## 1
Amino acid sequence: MLQKNRFKKGLNCVVNPLAAAVSLCCSFVSVFAYAQSAASASPTVTVTGSTDKDYLTSSASSATRISTRLRETPFSIDVVDSALIKDKSMTAPRELAESVAGVQQVVGYGNTPSQWFVIRGFSTDGVNYRDGYRSADKYTPRDFSNVERVEFVKGPASVLYGQAQPGGAVNTVTKTPLSYDQGFADLKLGSFSAARAAIDVNKALGAFAIRLNAAADSADSFVDFEKSRNTFFAPSLKLKLSNDLEMLYSGEFHKTTVNGFSNGLPMATGVFDLPASATVSQPWANLNNTTKTHRVEAKLALKDGWVFRQGAYVSTTKRSYQGISPAFNGADGTVLTNYPVMYNAGPIDDQGNRVLQSELTGTLKHGTVTHNLLFGFENMHSTFKYSFYDQFGCDNLNNCWGDYAKSFGAVLPSPLGGFTGGTTPETSGAKSRAFYANDQISWDAWRLMAGIRHDNVTTSSGTADESSSANSGRLGMMYLFTPRTSVYFSTSESFVPNTGARLGGGVLAPEKGRQQEFGIKHSWYQGLESTLALFEITKSNIRYKAASNPKVIANYAYLDYAKITRDIESGNLGRSLYGVAKSNFNIWGMQQLNSDLAIGAGFVRVGDRSGDSAGSGFMLPGYERVDLGLFYKLAKVDLALNVKNLNNARIFDTVDGWFVQRQAPRNVTITAAMKF
C-alpha cells in the first residue's frame, strides 16, 4: 500500500545467543467411551461420539513436508489449530501471534487483516505460505473460515520454502474434502455492529468429495467513519481416479471493502492520549481488495510406498484505494496538532503469485536406520505492480499539495478535480527455479535431518533486473533420552531476493540469514509439553528500513537483543528493530464445568517496543489484556460469548515502522453454531 522505503546494503541484524523462547502448551481431555452389548441375534449398533479437541498438536508437516511428530523434530514449531481459533473467536490473522512464543503481529496498511508477523525479531515482510506454496501478499486480507491450522516454523526455512526471512515461516493449511458427510454453520454478532455468518459443508459421493467454506460479514468500527464488508467463498473438490491416483482442486475468492480507510495515526507526541475513535480519515476514503486463489494437485502412489506429487498454485490480488493518511515524516518530534497529513491513492496496487511444485517422497531402510526422503523442484514467479498518487492538484478549498500542511484533525474534503497526477505504474518481481532434497534419519534414539536447496533467482524493478544463485542448507540433530525428553541442535540458512531498488538505481542482492539453535523438549505428562530454545540469528544484506479437565495453551518469549549491529552508516548501529518487544507472555484456558457449560479466560502481556528503526526513540507502550469466554451447548446448537480486551487496554501497533495503529477497545462477540 502506501510505502516509502529506502534500501541499503551491508546491514546486519542479530539476535544474540542469550535470546530464549519458552513455549508451554498443555491440554487435558478425557474421552468417555460408550458401549452397548447385545445378544448375538440382535443387530449391530454403532455409536459414535465426539469430545472437544484440545490445543496440543502432536504432528506437523511444515518443517519437513512430511507429517512428523513434533517431539522428534530438531526444530522449534508451534501449531495453532482450528479448535483454538474457534474458542478464542479469532477473526484476523494477526491474532495468531498471541498464541505463539516469539511471534508478534505487525499491522498491515489500513489495519487490513493480513498475515504479517515479526518472528524471533525479524519481520516476515508479508511473505507467507499457503498449503506449502509461497505467497507474497503483504497487505492481502485473509479469512479464517477455511483454515484447518496454521504452523509456525521458527528459524530459517529456505531449504523447503526457498525465499524466506530468517525469523521463520508461517504456513496456513486449508480445509480439504473429507471422506464423510458433515455440516457446520455459525452466526456471530458483536460490538461495533459486527455481524458474521459462515458455513462449512462436506459431501462425500464415493470416489468424489466436495467441501464448501463460505462467509460474509460487515461491521462498523471503534474508529470514526470506518466500515468494512467481506465476502468469502472457498470450494474444494477431491477425486480418486484409482487406488493410486488422486486429484485435488481448492479455490478461494475473497472481496474486502473498507470505507473510512486510513493508514493509521502519526508517530507524534500526544498520539497515545487520543480517544480510540481518532482518525485522520474521512467518510469518502475507501479501499477495495479482491483476491482469487487456485490450487491444483495430483498425487500418484508408486511402488514400495513412494509418492509423487505435482502441484500448481496461482493467486492474484487486485486492490485500489484513496484516502487521507499521516505524512511520511516518521517520529521527527512534531507535535500532534502540527503534524501534516496527505491525500494519497493507489489506483493500481496488485500482487500475483504463480508456483509449480514437483515432489517425490519415500522411505528407505538399512537395518536399524530409516531414511524418509524428499526430492523436489519448484518454479516460482511473484509480481507487484503499483501506481501511487500523492500530488492531486488542489482540493476544493484551493489547498495545493506544493505547500499543503493541514493539521491533524482538520476536516479535509475530497479533491475537487479528483485524484490526478501521480506516478507511472511500476512493476517489481522475482522468478526462481529451485531443486531441493531433505533426509530425515531415524537410528535408535537419534533423529537426524539434513537438507539442501539450490535456487536460480532473477529479481526485477522497473526495467532493471539481476540474476543470481543461492545455496541454502540445514542440519538438525536430536537425541531422545527417554520417550518424554529430547535435546536437539540445528543450524539453518535462509535467503530472500530484494524486489526494491537500490539508492541510485539497480537491484539489491538477496538477503541472507543464518541461525544456530539449541533446545530441549519435554513431555511432563499427557497433555503438558514444553520446548526451551536458545538461538542466534544473523541477517545480512537487508533492505533498510469435554471433561472436568482444562484446555490450556501458554507461551513466553524473551528476546534479549534485536538490533542493528553493522551498517555502512555508523549512526544506525545499535538501533532496535521495530515492533519487537523484549518479552511477551500469553495464556488461554478453558474449563468444562459440566457437559453443557464451559468458561474460558486469557491474559496477554507485551512489553514496550520501538515504533520505528530510525533511532528516533519513539516507543510503543506495552500493555496487558484480559479476554473471557463463556460456552454453552444446546441439543443442536453451540453458543459462545467472547469478550476481548475486558480491561479496555490501550493497545498500539506499528504500521511497517511508519505509522501507529490503534487496536480495538473492549468488544463482545456472540456466536451461535450448528453442526449437521
## 2
Amino acid sequence: MTMGMSIPAQAVTLRERILFGCILVVGLFYSSTILAHLTSLNLDLKAHKKFKTYRDLEESGLIPFVHPYAFNMTFRLSNDPTLHRLGKKAYRNIDMDKCLEWLLNRANVSCIMARNRILNLLPLHSGRMKQAEPCFWSSYRTFIMRQGSPYTLSFNRMIRIAQESGIVSKWWRRFHEDGVSSSYKKNSVNESLQLIETNKRRYRPKNDSYWRVFFLLLVDAAPQTAAAASATENLPAFHLLGLNTIEEWVRINNNSNNYFFDNDLWCSATAELARKAVGPINIDRVIDNNIDRIRRGLSLFDPAKLIDQAHYWNRWIYAKLFDGQLKRVSTMYRAGTCTLTYSGKITTANLNVGWDVMSFLYGYYYDVFFWSGRGKIYGDLSNLRVNLEVDIDFSNYQIVFKSLKFHDNGKLVASSDGFWSNIVVKVAIWLAHDAILRQVEVMANDIMAAEIALLNQQIGSGHRPFTFLNLVKSNRRSLASLSLRSLEQEFAADEYHPNEAVVDVPSPVKVEQLEKVLQRVEENKMKNRIDL
C-alpha cells in the first residue's frame, strides 16, 4: 500500500489528516495479518497423500520396509530407475509386524507385503493406514508338470483331500484371527506423542463370529417388536453376529429402526414383547447374508468323527464300524424357508438347512457264521434335508432345542473294498448312513450348548443366565434294530429306502443265495479292490 510510497507534502488540512490516518490504520492491520501468516505454521496430522505411482512413493520420504526374500523381486528385477532408488533406501527385515508397528506409531515407513494381508489389516486400522495403488509384482503359485506325468493324479488327489478335510481353511482362519488380534494388542498408539491421533480408541472385540452358527435366530426376532432408546454402549449384543457397529446392524436390517440389546436393556425390551404376538417372520435374507459365517463355524467339525458302532443280531452275525469320518460338513446351505414366531415371551425359530453332498469313510469288520473279514467303505450322502426348531423362553430364561427332523434322509451312494453283493457289507453301509444322521444331531446339540455358554459369558454375571434344554427326537428310523429276516428282505431290493416299511417275510431262496455269496467273499475281495 501507500506506506511504502513517498509523500510530497505534509497533510495540512483536516480532510488530509483524516484520510492519512485511515490509511495508516488500514496498513497496520494488513501488516499484522502478513506477519501472522509468516510466523504461524499449521500441520494437518490427519491428512494423507495418495500414492498413485512409484515416484509419489519416492517423493514422500517414507522408507520402504520389505522382507529380505522379496527384495530382489521387488526392486532389483526391474528396469525402472525409480524402483532402483527406492531399493537403495529400503529397510530389510523378516519381522513384518515391526513394520506395522512403525507405520502406526511413527508414520515413517511404507510396508511392502502381500495384498491379502493388507486387506485383512485394513478393517482393523482403516483410519490410520491406507493401501497404495502401485503393485510391485504378482505371481501365480502352481505346479507345472509334463503331459502324461504320473504325479498329476497324485497331486490332484492330495489337493482334493486337503480341501475336503477343511485343514487349509482352518489353518488360514487361525492365522488370520491370531495375527490380527496380536497385531492390534501390539500396535497400540502412544497418545503422548500425539503424532496420529489423540482420541482414545474404543475397544474392538475379536471377531470370532465363526462360532455363531445357530444363534442367527436372534437377529430378526426383536427388531420387529422391541425398542430401545439408546444404542451406544451395548455393542457386545451385536457381537453375536460379528457386528461391531450399529451402522453395520442397520445395513443388514435396513427396514427396521428398532434394536434388541442385552444386559440392562433386556428388561424394557421383553416388556414390550409381552404385549404383542408376532409371526411368522421370514429371515431367509438374514440366513443368506450370514451363510459364510455359518460355514466357517461348521468347518470346525470338518471332518467330523463318526461314532464307532458294534451290533449283534444273533450269536452268528456280528458287524462293527470304526474310524469313521464325515467330510464336507461346512457346505451346508439354506434348504427352505426360515421363520421366527413370537408369542407369550417365547420366540420360536424354524430353520430348514441341507447338504448337497457329504462324503464319509468307515472301517468295518464282520463275522458271519464261520467267515470274517475287514475293509473300508466310502461314499457320498446326497440331498440331506434337516428341519430345526428352537424356542427362546424369555420368562424362564431357557433355550429349548425342540426338534430335529429329517425331511429327506438323503441318497447313499457307497463303495467298498469287499465284494459288493456281500450282504454284510450292505449292512455296514446302512449302519454308516445311520451314524451320519446321528452325527448331524450331535453337532447341532454341541453347537447349541456352546452358544449358550458363550451367550451367558457375554451378557455378564449381573444377568440371569440362560439354560439349555435338549428335547430333540428325530424322525429317522434307527437301522441298528433290523432283524436277520429284515436284512434278507432288504438284500432283495436294488436300493435302500430308509423311509419305507420293511416286510418281515422269510425267504429261503435268499438265504441260500446268502450262503453262496459268503463263500465268494474272500476270493473276490482283492479283485474288486479300489485304492483309497
